[in-house]
Amino acid sequence: MLNKRSKQAWSFKRKLLIVMIIVLLLLGTVIYSLADRYLIEHVEVVVADDAATTSSSGATAVTAAEVNATSDDWNYSSDDIQIQIDQVQTGSGSDQITYFVADIVLKEASSLRTAFADNSFGTNITEDTSDIASANHAIFAINGDYYGFRNDGVIIRNGTVYRDDPVRDAMALFDDGTMQTYNEEEISSSELLAQGATDTLSFGPILIQDGEIASDFSNVKIDTNFGNHSIQNANPRTAVGMIAPNHYVFVVVDGRNEGYSRGMTLTELADVMSDLGATEAYNLDGGGSSTMYFMGRVVNNPQGKNKERGVSDILYIKEDATS
Question: Which residues form the Phosphodiester glycosidase domain (predicted)?
């Protein structure tokens, strides 16, 4: 027979064990929830794969093994596409900024496309920008909006609506070669499609709209997810702008590498896009995602370490298969 003190000790141990089990179960649930949200792939749609096709004009896949582009030949010219890339450096020392500008003129709007990592739509599905670009035979590419990090926004790609949860300022590409920035809550996806929208990207903020720089970047909020960071300070950046129909400018800013490039603020990025002549401009996912790819190689210095970070999507240029 257990005495009173022994019974009390046993009761305490049993309660402690129960509490520990409950805590472990709760901890396990939290860990699984975080992994499910940020690590485990959730494929919602597998997109029909046409990456293996070549254009009737004879364009073929460009791989890193075949081409070693340098700053002396950062250009591409065909009957349908003109690309010129320039590296720009401003400031010095800890205030130096290094960025890359791609001026691109297209004959056909369909030469500007989007592609998903692993050719699939869903969350936590990522590949390096260069790998997605190579798989789609891209001549040029930049990272997209990393739609897979969040569960909201309006995501239209290649004329298909994949997600329709309007929450923020966005950007749309149209089949007439134009680009427009807009508020997702003010125009529906069906209206966009009726107007000829082929693709939308949901990140932001809008940098330039109707020829004017957006007035205030001090309270920009893109995500409320776990792990979201402020984007107001100087950071690596990726942006796309339209100068005229079928005339685009793409900017990728390196950063977080003192003495090489500190990155840009949103205000500085908007000023650059304005100086380049953009009448519409939009900020895409930046930081470690910021990557520019051209003719089989990465042009910039991702993460300040020449190391790409996996992303969920890209914008890219390819010879029009219908030309």
Answer: 136-317
SS3 319: coil
Q: Which residue has the tokens 């090489």?
A: 260
125-148 pLDDT, tens digit each: 999 999 999 999 999 999 999 999
Element (H, E) at 191: helix 189-194
Residues with Cβ within 8 Å of residue 218, at least 6 apart in sequence: 232
Full DSSP string of 218-274: TT-----STT----SSSB-EEEEEEEETTEEEEEEE--SBTTTB--B-HHHHHHHHH
Ranges of each domain in the chain: 41-317
At which residue do the structure tokens 């997109």 appear? 47
* 78-90 pLDDT, tens digit each: 999 999 999 999 9
- First and final C-alpha spacing in the chain: 92
Task: Provide the 3-class DSSP secondary structure of residue 302.
Answer: helix
CA-to-CA distance for 75 and 81, rounded, in angstroms? 10
One-letter amino acid at 168 equals: R
- Over the stretch 173-218, which tens digit does the pLDDT of each residue have? 999 999 999 999 999 999 999 999 999 999 999 999 999 999 778 7
HSE-CB at 280 with a 13 A cutoff on CA atoms is: 19
Residues 238-272: pLDDT tens digits? 999 999 999 999 999 999 998 999 999 999 999 99
User: What pTM does this model have?
Assistant: 0.81
Q: What is the largest CA-CA distance in the chain?
A: 96
What residues form DSSP beta bridges with 293?
141, 298
Interstrand relation of 280-284 and 237-244 (parallel, antiparallel or unpaired): antiparallel
125: tokens are: 């599905």
Neighbour order of strands in the sheet with 179-183: 179-183, 169-174, 197-201
Which amino acid is it at 146?
Answer: Y
CA distance 219 to 221: 6
Q: ∠234-73-317 over CA atoms, to 5°?
A: 70
